[in-house]
Amino acid sequence: MSAILDALKQHYGFDHFRPGQESLVQAAIDGQDALGILPTGSGKTLCYQLPTLMLGGTTIVIEPLLALMEDQVKRLQAMGEKHVIALTSQLQPSDFRFVLAHLNGYRFVFMAPEMLARQDVIAQLQQMPLTLAVVDEAHCISQWGPDFRPAYLKLGDQLAKLNVRATMALTATAPKVVQDDIKRGLHLNQPQESIASVNRPNVFMGLEQVDSQADKMTRLIELLTQIAGPKIIYFDSKQKAEQVTELIAAKTSLSVAYYHAGLDAHTRDLIYRRFMQDQLEVICATSAFGMGIDKPDVRLVVHLYVPESLEAYSQAIGRAGRDGEASAAVLLIGPGDYQRAAQFSQGLPDAKLIETIYRHPAAYQNMEDPQIQLIEAYIASGFNQDQVKAQLRDRLSEKTASFQAMATLLNTQGCLRQALLAHFDSPLVAHTAQCCGELTQDVISRLAPAKPVLAAAVLPWQTIFTTIFKHSLAEKSN
């Protein structure tokens, strides 16, 4: 048995790697850059955890969301790893300074890309030999970077300042053009590539046209009451998520809640925990309830709008059936949905707005308008006016092309799954009755049964506060 198989057995109890893992682990051990495009649930985190445990030293992991960092910290702690921390702005200033001063005492350090823009963080990391630099959800470089996280566009330059043995980029979904963006953006040097198919054969790909928005709600209620198990409904606005939550509560006996970025962090955390603990059957969410949602038994994912890209669509439907059991995703399309999505695909600042804000950036700080916030984020990340214009001009072309690809898929007369796989250059599979199309009663009858739903009792305020404070104290004790 090889050394890495011995280590796999010792640390995880597994005798064999899952497809795609071993070559990424070996690359990290050899000090070679790597790119892993592995489907959700395939064990991407093991690809950087195992080589770090074998080699020692410190690995930094770049995550887009605080929830993802917290989740990975807890999982590592559950494995018995004590030298792990999330270096975030949530830490008290004194705690942050202490952690930063003792950073070389941690084996795994999680942070957002914006954290690497801080001079004190870069200065501390430059003094340390780093085992690995890992960029999780690496597709954000291509999509979130231009759209609202410009720090992603500087990530390769920032990592180049550090003493890193190798860089590993990981994501679940990335077509060839996004893979190229990742390799270029992170300055990956002849990376070892492990590219898996995006196909989720256990997830039925449903697509249904409805005649009106009222019919859409009627069909939604039918599906929610006919399909057992946890369910996620996606919306393109916070207001719609809240409105449909009220409708479901009024029309059914299902336990339901909405989740979006407008809620405070503690409320989102409590809703997330109730869903994960089977106290909620339905979540009405915007894309804020996205990456890192690792509930294995979600049986239905519904889109009530046209997603902005096939990448976003594939990521979302991949949240169904992570346990490998038969599950379904369905997109309900009504009048005006295409036009609304097409308008959203053009939603980036124009040259005039960029010029206006660059003339007086301080006057526009702390405004709620997302386009203004995006330009301010570019300014904070050190981009000049011409660079921003070029970035957003290119991104607008990409978003238009992405929407056209999504529209083409949804208007295909053939197999939806084959069209999706072709977009991602994945091997095609044969069409079957359990593949895609209308979510019929026959398809529904074949979906996996659900676990009993626990009573969604309202927690007393003392319990809620205890949960919050325990969570905060656990973070500080890492």
TrEMBL record:
<dbReference type="GO" id="GO:0006281">
    <property type="term" value="P:DNA repair"/>
</dbReference>
<keyword id="KW-0067">ATP-binding</keyword>
<dbReference type="Pfam" id="PF00271">
    <property type="entry name" value="Helicase_C"/>
</dbReference>
<dbReference type="GO" id="GO:0009378">
    <property type="term" value="F:four-way junction helicase activity"/>
</dbReference>
<dbReference type="GO" id="GO:0006310">
    <property type="term" value="P:DNA recombination"/>
</dbReference>
<dbReference type="GO" id="GO:0043138">
    <property type="term" value="F:3'-5' DNA helicase activity"/>
</dbReference>
<dbReference type="GO" id="GO:0030894">
    <property type="term" value="C:replisome"/>
</dbReference>
<keyword id="KW-0347">Helicase</keyword>
<keyword id="KW-0378">Hydrolase</keyword>
<dbReference type="GO" id="GO:0043590">
    <property type="term" value="C:bacterial nucleoid"/>
</dbReference>
<protein>
    <submittedName>
        <fullName>ATP-dependent DNA helicase RecQ</fullName>
    </submittedName>
</protein>
<dbReference type="GO" id="GO:0005737">
    <property type="term" value="C:cytoplasm"/>
</dbReference>
<dbReference type="InterPro" id="IPR004589">
    <property type="entry name" value="DNA_helicase_ATP-dep_RecQ"/>
</dbReference>
<dbReference type="GO" id="GO:0003676">
    <property type="term" value="F:nucleic acid binding"/>
</dbReference>
<keyword id="KW-0547">Nucleotide-binding</keyword>
<feature type="domain" description="Helicase ATP-binding">
    <location>
        <begin position="25"/>
        <end position="192"/>
    </location>
</feature>
<dbReference type="InterPro" id="IPR011545">
    <property type="entry name" value="DEAD/DEAH_box_helicase_dom"/>
</dbReference>
<dbReference type="GO" id="GO:0016787">
    <property type="term" value="F:hydrolase activity"/>
</dbReference>
<feature type="domain" description="Helicase C-terminal">
    <location>
        <begin position="219"/>
        <end position="375"/>
    </location>
</feature>
<dbReference type="InterPro" id="IPR001650">
    <property type="entry name" value="Helicase_C-like"/>
</dbReference>
<dbReference type="InterPro" id="IPR027417">
    <property type="entry name" value="P-loop_NTPase"/>
</dbReference>
<dbReference type="GO" id="GO:0005524">
    <property type="term" value="F:ATP binding"/>
</dbReference>
<dbReference type="Pfam" id="PF00270">
    <property type="entry name" value="DEAD"/>
</dbReference>
<dbReference type="InterPro" id="IPR014001">
    <property type="entry name" value="Helicase_ATP-bd"/>
</dbReference>
